Amino acid sequence: MLMTAEHYLDNEGQKVVIIMTSGPSEPARCATPFYLGSVLAAMDNEVRIFFTMEGVRLMQTGVAEGMAAMEGGKPIIDFIRDAKRAGVALHVCHPALPGYKIEPSTDLIPEVDEVNRASELADLLLQSDKTLTF
């Protein structure tokens, strides 16, 4: 089915939450959420990616710089930076950090917007129009 310009106009202004649980152990799953988030933000939607479980490792300094979704592919950090330029907000789950020995004040990349409790994720989910998980 070919999408028309009118179809895209019907989908702007929505709140989208992407829950990212995948991390370095599954690099093939780590580019798409940022790419899709960038596309959705470019379509005038409010997009937030919430990192929890192993997903928090992508926000750890030095991890995404050394990863690609496929051999020879673009580094994951570039997808993260593209998403930030598009207006995607990045949230990190505070309760998940100690399990990976990540200190929020020193070990996170500058692209992180907020470090939140699980209750913030609950609020984001209840306010979202669409929720995606990776």
From TrEMBL:
Alphabetical list of SUPFAM superfamilies matching this protein: DsrEFH-like
InterPro entries per the UniProt record, alphabetical: DsrEFH-like (IPR027396), Sulphur_relay_DsrE/F-like (IPR003787)
Protein's name in the database: DsrE family protein
Organism in which the protein naturally occurs: Thioalkalivibrio nitratireducens (strain DSM 14787 / UNIQEM 213 / ALEN2)
